[in-house]
Amino acid sequence: MTADLIDIHPDVRAALDAGRAVVALESTIVTHGMPHPRNVETARAVEDDIRAEGAVPATIAVLDGRPRVGLSAADLDALVARPDVAKASGRDLAAIMARGGSAGTTVSCTMRLAALAGIRVFATGGVGGVHRGAEETWDVSADLAELGRTEVAVVCAGVKSILDIPKTLEVLESQRVPVIAYGTDAFPAFYARDSGKRADHRLDTPEEIARAVDLHLRLGSGTGLLIANPVPEADALAPAEIDGIIAEAIDAAATQGVSRKDLTPFLLERIATRSEGRSLATNIALVRNNARLAARIAVELAG
Known about the structure:
This protein is of the alpha/beta class. The protein contains 14 helices and 13 strands. Helices cover about 50% and strands about 15% of the residues.
């Protein structure tokens, strides 16, 4: 059935058929998360990082109504060149496919397509979560629901501190999603290494994490896993600094009436401007760091 729904790049298909390590990558970082040309440069660097660790990268997107699991260089260029490229959550897939549209895939959408292709490890920057003020707006990312029902291990730098982190962790607990921090007791906050909250579990090696992923899947748990990998210390921003910038960005979004899918891109652009580009440099560093860890976990799982 999946052969009728998705196109799998030959390199990715060959690796899956041979039982070799594959790491899924999302594409909204390219279409909506970073300015050109840093978006394309980062996407290619992340793929190279995964190959250097012995795994095969599978960047996921939708082009002309067809989900692609693994993009060629030409596919990536075509995706970036589309003026009307959508930002696709898991719920948007069928409608975008039906109209022959193109889209960058969010965490929830990428997880769904990775699972259909048989990929069990996925690297991203940060997952979505419960937005501040959600008790009034009900703005809760579909990423959390997807983690609660799709058996893919998601390696990320925690969640962005634009979100309500305590509420996000509560929802993950309700969804039965294990939260495993790599080499730390703290749950990271994307730009910063420590959100002030503790992760459920700490594991200190890719081998331990791969073992936990394998056991979780073999137990039939029915959920994903969140692997929280703090941004490298040299690239982290001070919590006090970034929190002030985020508070200003959130106030600006409220004043301008920005919400739903437009909110996160608006906030990220505002934060990058106010931090004079330092947040973008941190974003790139943590995405590449997550990709390397994901590849090591995938290699251990394949071995």
